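Re-run with default settings, no changes from the original entry. Doing this only to confirm the output is reproducible before filing.
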Amino acid sequence: MEKKTIRCAIYTRKSTEEGLEKEFNSLEAQREAGESYVISQKFQGWEIIEKHYDDGGFSGGNMDRPALQELISDVKAGFVDMIVVYKIDRLTRSLLDFSKLIEILNEHDCSFVSVTQYFNTADSMGEKRILPDGQL
């Protein structure tokens, strides 16, 4: 039986533009950690989507970020199975926005995982799916 390919999009965010001009910056460090994590899950069929979803200089307090909006569009279009973030707060710092994102992901059979925090909506606990109101 062939293993299903899990297309993984790595999302990075940094709230200020300070340091983004450096040869190796925070966004690249987050992406590198995400890539390493996806590679470690290759046995489960995980593959990195080459497209970059990077929001440098954007607050996590709202969802008005170009790369995040593009990522959400790609999730809705069925191009992404898993979103990989360094930390949950890279995705959002708003509980309300987090709830909205979970709802979108659930509707489109997409999961997300945090590399540095154990929060994976694709594992056996995540199969129950988190509902928008926070209930399991």
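Strands lie at 6-14, 46-48, 53-56, 82-85, 111-114. Residues 84 and 112 are 6 Å apart (CA to CA).
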